């Protein structure tokens, strides 16, 4: 439809009900109605409030997606009030509520008849939505075309919570965002009938495994998806006791007293009503340890695990990821409702990025800000950078959260499951940059380790406990906060200094293997190592030995220069000059080399005025430190001569070339590649001089 087509319906909803809102919009557009919905029609960069006002005013009718979330939303209430004000008597049916979740409208909204989709199968729900739209547009009565069935034949077979579903779900967090797709995919997987373990990108603590499981169980409870009951078990405490208490308290089963607990559990499973039942075991460490408590393999029992590990068959692993930036900001806004997030959005984004978009970290800092109304996002950022994982905002959970601990405590649970060698490997990995880590670099740092044993530590310990993530062939990565955690652990070990020096030595050796002239092949070969080379020459620069101070930063400059990324190349050449001067002093051959490299970059860009003083300084430094007859002096003379020649300053260039060639022939020999290059440059200069002289003569 063209943009000029009148809008039939504006769909107003809370973000928790986006799935229902989009489903309704799709159904209506399939019936050729024109619909406006935030999820499809409001683009990034627009004014959300103005877009909403425009849509509500231009649409003929507003569909209100009715749920407990929308009834609590100020924005949604305002949109509905605007629609109601246009038609307070309901004569034109300008406001059509569609109830999608258990809720009880109060006050004004209790007087408006709604379309009820709660507990209704999809086909029937679609029919109700279409008929409601049709009657609103055509003002038809709702009389059916056929005689209704006798009511006794329409008894609902599907129970809907609350009265008939036994459950013992834990208290849910009052914020839950960014997981709608996970809920849908998880439901599909659980319904296959096999046990399903939830793990994270690496099953790491704090990613929201328990939260996702609890919200899934709650959602299905409310939808009547498991009429046989929803049983929540903590895998770290006595399972048989929990199952028996549930059977007695919720199911009123008769359980004999004179048998062992495991026999009681098996008897409970036999007595369980044969209706679909969800059993959740939270925080499973060892599948073998809980297996004997699981129900028999019946199609109506669905088992869902949360775990930091990855289990093999028959468990299917469902991996959840960290939140997106948008979902992370939405989570912070839901906790900090006074506008502080959007008042300093750039800093809020930096906070989210530093937390690695980890739900636990985001919720902790969000609740911290909610408690401290006078604390700005900028002040929070300052405290996080100063105190890192020890920041008060990250230390302790509070009432209303599903997680009972802070970030460090959550990570500590997984750390304690590692053996000593795996812990040492984790601490080594924390020295690498926050980027994908080539496993070949890790092996280079541990040359005496058995290759297969090292892989076992990686796969069976770190990857299995989701402390390290496999990205692609030969490449691994750790989450940002886990990297911080491992670094804290490393700082307590006596071998930390030696570990840092070893890492830097390996990175320097890698740098020496890199070419000075880069090709597409060499760029591809070494590009994965570059972030870690940067880490060695910046964060870990104090642990580079003097002989290695130059090579990492120089190779980085050459790497970017070879790709014509001149700004990045300049940054690393300047860094190279800075650290070599600070470490070695103003009078050192490596300082002269760094000056030559920076000057050569400027020369290649035609920045001759910036290049000349650097070339002159490098030449004088080489003469002073190495003597007039050293090959480096010959190279410096050649460089300066080339600069003069490029500017047409041939009379200044010629004596420099002559001196450079003489030194090189004596020091390196007449056939040395450096000597031959200088000779060729000198010859080119002489030809240019003759050409310039002839041109000036002909003009005269």
Automatic annotation (TrEMBL):
A Gene Ontology cellular-component term: microtubule
Positions of the UniProt region annotated as Disordered: 135-163
Alphabetized GO MF terms: ADP binding; kinesin binding
InterPro entries assigned to the protein according to its UniProt record, in alphabetical order: Kinesin_light (IPR002151), NB-ARC (IPR002182), P-loop_NTPase (IPR027417), TIR_dom (IPR000157), Toll_tir_struct_dom_sf (IPR035897), TPR-like_helical_dom_sf (IPR011990), TPR_rpt (IPR019734)
Domain of life of the organism encoding this protein: Bacteria
Presence of the UniProt keyword Coiled coil in the record: yes
Stretches with biased composition (Basic and acidic residues): 136-150
Primary location class: cytoplasm
Subcellular location: Cytoplasm, Cytoskeleton
Short name of any one Pfam family annotated for the protein: TPR_12
UniProt entry tagged with the keyword NAD: no
Domain TIR: 5-137
GO biological process, one term: microtubule-based movement
Keywords: Coiled coil, Cytoplasm, Cytoskeleton, Microtubule, Motor protein, Repeat, TPR repeat
TPR repeat boundaries on the chain: 592-625, 634-667
Record-stated family: Belongs to the kinesin light chain family.
Name under which the protein is recorded: NB-ARC domain-containing protein
């Amino acid at each position: 439809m063209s943009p000029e087509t009148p809008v039939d319906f504006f769909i107003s909803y809370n973000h928790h009900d986006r799935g229902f809102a989009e489903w309704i919009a799709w159904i209506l557009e399939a019936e050729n109605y024109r619909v406006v919905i935030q999820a499809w029609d409001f683009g990034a960069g627009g004014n959300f409030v103005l877009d909403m006002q425009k849509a509500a005013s231009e649409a003929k009718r507003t569909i209100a997606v009715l749920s407990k979330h929308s009834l609590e939303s100020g924005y949604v209430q305002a949109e509905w009030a605007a629609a109601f004000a246009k038609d307070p008597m309901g004569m034109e049916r300008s406001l059509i509520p569609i109830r999608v979740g258990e809720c009880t409208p109060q006050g004004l909204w209790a007087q408006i008849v709604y379309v009820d989709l709660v507990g209704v199968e999809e086909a029937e729900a679609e029919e109700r939505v279409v008929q409601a739209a049709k009657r609103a547009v055509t003002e038809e009565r709702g009389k059916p075309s056929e005689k209704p069935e006798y009511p006794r034949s329409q008894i609902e077979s599907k129970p809907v919570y609350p009265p008939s579903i036994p459950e013992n779900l834990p208290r849910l967090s009052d914020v839950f965002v960014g997981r709608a797709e996970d809920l849908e995919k998880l439901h599909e997987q659980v319904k296959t009938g096999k046990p399903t373990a939830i793990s994270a990108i690496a099953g790491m603590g704090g990613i929201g495994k328990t939260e996702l499981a609890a919200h899934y169980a709650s959602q299905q409870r409310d939808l009547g998806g498991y009429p046989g009951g929803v049983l929540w078990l903590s895998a770290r405490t006595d399972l048989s006791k929990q199952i028996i208490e549930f059977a007695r308290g919720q199911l009123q089963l008769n359980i004999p007293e004179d048998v062992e607990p495991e026999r009681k559990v098996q008897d409970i499973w036999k007595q369980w009503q044969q209706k679909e039942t969800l059993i959740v075991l939270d925080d499973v460490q060892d599948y073998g340890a809980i297996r004997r408590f699981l129900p028999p393999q019946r199609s109506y029992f669905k088992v869902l695990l949360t775990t930091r590990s990855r289990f093999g068959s028959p468990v299917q692993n469902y991996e959840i990821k960290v939140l997106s930036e948008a979902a992370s900001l939405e989570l912070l806004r839901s906790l900090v409702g006074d506008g502080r997030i959007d008042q300093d959005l750039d800093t809020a984004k930096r906070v989210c990025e530093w937390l690695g978009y980890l739900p636990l970290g985001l919720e902790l800092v969000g609740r911290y800000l909610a408690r401290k109304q006078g604390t700005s996002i900028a002040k929070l950022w300052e405290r996080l950078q100063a105190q890192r994982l020890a920041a008060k905002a990250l230390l302790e959970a509070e009432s209303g959260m599903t997680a009972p601990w802070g970030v460090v405590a959550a990570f500590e649970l997984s750390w304690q499951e590692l053996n000593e060698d795996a812990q040492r490997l984790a601490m080594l990995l924390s020295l690498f940059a926050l980027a994908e880590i080539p496993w070949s670099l890790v092996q280079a740092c541990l040359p005496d380790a058995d290759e297969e044993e090292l892989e076992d530590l990686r796969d069976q310990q770190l990857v299995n406990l989701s402390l390290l993530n496999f990205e692609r062939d030969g490449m691994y990565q750790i989450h940002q906060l886990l990297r911080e955690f491992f670094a804290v652990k490393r700082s307590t070990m006596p071998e930390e200094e030696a570990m840092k020096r070893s890492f830097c030595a390996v990175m320097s050796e890698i740098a020496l293997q890199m070419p000075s002239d880069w090709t597409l092949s060499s760029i591809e070969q070494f590009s994965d190592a570059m972030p870690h080379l940067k880490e060695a020459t910046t964060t870990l620069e104090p642990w580079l030995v003097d002989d290695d101070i130059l090579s990492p930063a120089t190779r980085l400059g050459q790497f970017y220069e070879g790709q014509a990324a001149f700004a990045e190349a300049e940054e690393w050449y300047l860094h190279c000059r800075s650290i070599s001067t600070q470490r070695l002093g103003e009078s050192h051959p490596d300082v002269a080399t760094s000056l030559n490299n920076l000057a050569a970059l400027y020369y290649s860009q035609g920045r001759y005025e910036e290049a000349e003083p650097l070339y002159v300084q490098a030449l004088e430094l080489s003469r002073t430190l190495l003597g007039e007859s050293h090959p480096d002096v010959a190279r410096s003379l050649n460089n300066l001569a080339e600069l003069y020649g490029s500017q047409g300053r041939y009379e200044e260039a010629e004596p420099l070339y002559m001196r450079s060639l003489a030194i090189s022939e004596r020091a390196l020999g007449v056939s040395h590649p450096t000597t031959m290059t200088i000779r060729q440059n000198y010859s080119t200069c002489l030809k240019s001089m003759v050409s310039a002289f002839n041109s000036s003569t002909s003009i005269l």
